[in-house]
Amino acid sequence: MPEAILTKQEVEPGKVDRLREWMAELRDREDEVMETFTDEGINAETVFLEHTDDGTYLVTYLDADDVVSAFEAFEDSLHDIDHEHQSVMDEVLVDGTDVGKYEPLSHLVNPERSNDGA
Hints:
single chain; alpha+beta; Alpha-Beta Plaits; 3-stranded antiparallel β-sheet; 4 helices; 3 strands; DUF6176
């Protein structure tokens, strides 16, 4: 059964444009991203920016076969794009700490959902 998490990380002031550029590059390099998703057991990832009076936050929804295993696979990844991603996150996030306090109540998945990205 897939697992889902939601994380919230503070973005460094002045780094939102760099973050936007990186997300655009990831979309342009979708084939590489999908290869890492397959290796890491990730089914879907959606990324948002939350703008508040306290700052800007990167909010990420992740659906994976096993979230802990997905994070471990990312840390051990041999894919260049994963190393680039970590480097950019180190640059744009305050410290990478998850400051969100989300309690999962339900994660329902349509067993007939398309796996072709449509």
